[in-house]
Design brief:
alpha/beta, about 200 residues, about 20% strand, Rossmann fold, six-stranded parallel beta sheet, single chain
Amino acid sequence: MNRALIVIDVQNEYFTGNLPIAHPPREESLAAILRAMDAAERHGIPVIVVRHTAPAASPLFAEGSHGRELREEVAARPYAHLVDKTKASAFHETGLAGRLDGIDTVAIAGYMTQNCDESTARDAFHLGFAVEFLSDATGTVPLANAAGALSARQVHENVLVVMQSNFAAVTTTGEWIDAVAAGVPLPRPSIWESTAPARA
């Protein structure tokens, strides 16, 4: 198997800007992201860093703003490609798929769990990649709108369950690093197993 690590939107907006990550705690998730990047470098796994950009008048990720800049610790680490995007998925009109020639498995880390991470994971799945979703190297914020309200923990954990049901192997960073070191795949998700409660 040939892996790549996709590090999504680890930008200042999520730390010192208008959208601070709440769960898992942002310093913990950042530490896990950096561990994954360091392990990828040790084992020759290409790292793709993704950066979100919005128009200059946007309250989030505005072009030219400090919030749009990559977190310093991520920017300082080696990576194979920097992908700029304007939509949730890192694959949308970015040419990312073409940069993954020879790769059959992608690992997802970064922010936010239910938005750019999930969108990228779903697109990768539909493009034929095996997907690994790093549960402690991703994170999100609480949500509230006309449909209801969820805590950051609820948002995060709900996405992990859905990912594991069909789209991605959900794993901790430590488990992923062990699998990388051993050169073995993670157990694949199973829609049949995940829907067992519906048949009970």
